[in-house]
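Exam revision sheet. Question 4 asks you to relate a sequence to its structure. Input first:
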Amino acid sequence: MIVESGIVPVVRTESAAGAIQAIQAIYRGGIRAAEITMTVPGAIQALEKVADEFGDRMVLGAGTVLDPETARACMLAGAVFFVTPSLKLSTIEMVKRYSKVMMPGALTPTEILTAWEAGADAVKVFPCGNVGGAKYIKSVKAPFPHIEMVPTGGVNLETAPEFLKAGACAVGVGAELIDSANIRAGKFEVFEHRARHFLEIIAKARAEMGAAFQKN
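Answer key, structure tokens:
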């Protein structure tokens, strides 16, 4: 579902209630996956509530998972994919032991390859925007065409197509999709509109990529 939609919404909010309402909004906008970060107060409870509400209709993930113990707790709460900000092999091992989807964070070529060889389903390249953005993805995809990469950091409506065309299988989007200011203002409809817009530009980029491939 993540690769199909091409987007991993990173839900990093100031409250569990805000996270839940934000996910409800992006669901209405057509997105069927969401990552609740462990920096959200009451994140485990938020995972449980979203899992209960949406069931199989939403692919639910846990983000900013720093250790295997947290991964297991999130798993029991309903998370089916796991994202880390850095490379920790014991966390990958825990997640794969239960046959769940793992997207560890990595940045350098060595970290990216290590993560993949340890069993990652895709590698979260973070913070991608600070090291060249789409150009960096294109560079590291050259020696690692077989490694699925999800750039996070620096992804917005303008750059998302560039990341996909550079070889990313999906993009991680945080505040450009769900931001604290609109949550505080109760303007959750903004996230619904943004979700639709992101899906539209991703679909357009992939269509252009397909057309270019056919020409070649």
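Marking note for examiners. The chain is about 50% helix and 15% strand.
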